[in-house]
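= Protein in question =
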Amino acid sequence: MSNHFTGLKLGPPEGDTRLDLTDLYVFTAPADAARTAVILNCNSFTQEAAFHPDAVYRINIDNNHDCQTDLAFILTFSKPDAGRQSATVYLAQGAEARSDEPLGTPLFKDVEVSFGPEPNIYTSGDYMFFAGVRSDAFFIDFAGLLNMFDWQEGKNFTGFGKGPDPSLWTGKDLFANYNVFSMAFEMPTNLLGADPAVRIWGRVSIRKNGQLVAVDRSGHPTFANFFFTDEVKPEFNRSEPAQDRERFLEQVIHTLEHVGGYSREAALALIDAEGILPDMLSFTPTKPGGYPNGRRLTDHIVAHRLAMLSNGKIPPDGLKPHTDLLKAFPYLGTPHPHPDPPPRNGG
């Protein structure tokens, strides 16, 4: 759900940060306008040492606007052994892309996951792939955010507390010294099948009693934490984008009315203008990049979301993007050798 906390009190899916999808990025490759990078991150604060071996991670692509997956990159990981792990990536299309199981054509098979400072980058035809630990590009004045909102008791950021008040910003970026697990791809843009846009979302499922059970999803950044309480989130995590408007539209409208003072009509217009329901990240390659047209590593997502949610009442926090980003694939910076200890939920 493009959040580093499934909920401030709820914790990660299944109590396991390996199953916590944090951020989804889609942008034109800086050195080649004909290529697109797609990055899906998980494992908040790298609290676990490897990807989950019983999980299936997916990057789903809808290229005909029916909210169904037409193309999917499906990833599975081996059991970690002595600090090493391997990844296998399948490229699935059509019915295979919509199956819960990891089907499709193997693009990369048993390639080494990167746990050190140097990224292991693999190529297969026109595709590039990386999986492993990188510096987290997300930035947020989290303490300032908590100061503004009534986030206790599972409410997250669905209602103001002390805010909006610019004096409540602290100027400190919580993620300045954290790492994250990343799954990154780069490919020719035409292979996405954009006509003219594609909609992309991440999914992770865990196998239970022989069946794959969906436990988290990732589309628009910061969407779920700002619009849903902990009571709603588990249902949202399990659901499919095709169900979003029917099941969650009224909740999103209510939050916009409550926090931003929008009328119902204005809230509906804003939801459609931002394209946040269904919760799939839209990307039109022929238009200038930057959220909400895809998402770059430097986009100030929190400032955008707060301005939208509050109807412009919350001023920017003054934070800047991280300076350790790479100019070449996999774009995320070298992992911090001594990251900060994980924060407690709720700060």
Notes: The radius of gyration is 19 Å.
